[in-house]
Amino acid sequence: MTRIVQLEFDEAKIEEFISFFDTINDKVNNFPGCKGMKLYQDIKKPSIVLTYSHWDDESDLENYRNSETFKSIWSKIKPWFCEKPQAWSLNSHFNGFEVSK
Question: Among 4, 7, 72, 96, which one is most buried in terms of CB atoms within 10 A?
């Protein structure tokens, strides 16, 4: 399962978020059931970032979302948002990145 979360930060807070993210990314990336995570930053509007993570299944994601790790991260960054976060949980139907060329 893939989880994509779009976060839009106050422009004055985006640098602080990136610095904070660099201190916690391994906690999320190594959480049980997480198969890997990426952080993307919009080129034209850098205050928008997206997390892209792979999970074994939905229960692993829910375990993370109910964990102290998530709660401590979310409580720190939530005041920095300028828009409500958006999130999608997705199943893959095609992955061209895994095709040999």
Answer: 7
Contacts of 42 (CB under 8 A, 6+ apart): 48, 49, 50
Residues 23, 36: Cα–Cα separation, whole Å: 16
**pTM strictly above 0.85:** yes
CATH 3.40.50.2300 fits 2-91, yes or no: no
Q: What is the pLDDT of residue 61?
A: 97
Domain boundaries, the chain: 2-91
For residues 13 and 90, give the distance between their C-alpha atoms in angstroms, rounded to a whole number. Answer: 29
Of 81, 31, 79, nearest to 56 by C-alpha is 31
Tell me the pLDDT tens digit for each residue of 58-74.
999 999 999 999 999 99
